[in-house]
Amino acid sequence: MLTGLPDGYGRGRIIGDYRRVALYGISYLVRERELQFADLQGKLERGEDLEATIRLREELAEHKRALLQIQQMASGYGFDISRPAMNAQEAVQWVYFAYLAAVKSQNGGAMSLGRTATFLDIYIERDMQAGRLSEMQAQELIDHFIMKIRMVRFLRTPEFDTLFSGDPIWATEVIGGMGLDGRTLVTKNSFRYLHTLHTMGPAPEPNLTILWSEHLPIAFKKYAAQVSIVTSSLQYENDDLMRADFDSDDYAIACCVSPMVIGKQMQFFGARANLAKTLLYAINGGVDEKLKIQVGAENRSAAGRGAGLRHRDGEPRSLYGLAGGTVHQRAESHSLHA
Fold this sequence. Notes:
transferase, Auton_GlycylRad_Cofactor, Formate acetyltransferase, two-stranded antiparallel ribbon
């Protein structure tokens, strides 16, 4: 009834801020970590909050190593991402390298993309105004980016494939929504992301998610509805609700429905509870209908009856037996399980 999730899916959910590589470049991000590391030296010497200080220094050192590894990986493809992206093509490429590094080193069940459409629109619009990029070329850049995301595959354990079909990675990209200042976050690039479903056909990945608000531009609402009707490949979530709840307009969806502020939060995700199975055990007197063995408290008076189940302190009897009885299968503990 309590199912420990497969390792790839049970480590928690996090959305990396992949935009930072394009915005700052690796060298700046490394230097930022070095300065933060040096600032902790005084606290370390004074023994102030020693455990937290040591842990933070270790994490900053890991950050630096990981960033340099991303730079080395990109160099192998012939790109220097130590500097910020200078144009739209580099911005798309740099963001992709950051995401590629994540999926190369972590085969998590949900490797979400975050919120890149509005960010990349800044570079695309600047290049178009300077005459360096046409609308057709801009759409081609986004098509290629989405194509690369669609190509991501992981080697999964049999347990993962049993739980999920189609090898999903939930590379969720959120599109639209409103800013805290009342301005829309819909841009021309938001339309380009949706248009990839026409140029390349429908696909489950990336999981394009519309952050729906009553205040979205009417043209975007109509286009999103038209794309949904034709492709059945968009999902919608309530931006008005989540924006107020987080007091932030820079949040995204991890996995399929779970919101978090990008680069600042994560979620623990350890197991699933099968409440329908619990009810079935109560009806069957604690007997598993497949294994034909007693797995919970023997409750013959309830067996075969759909109503009038005995309760103790308001809870079904079977819950007590299962909670205190022998556990036939166990899940390995994990530091990220909550």
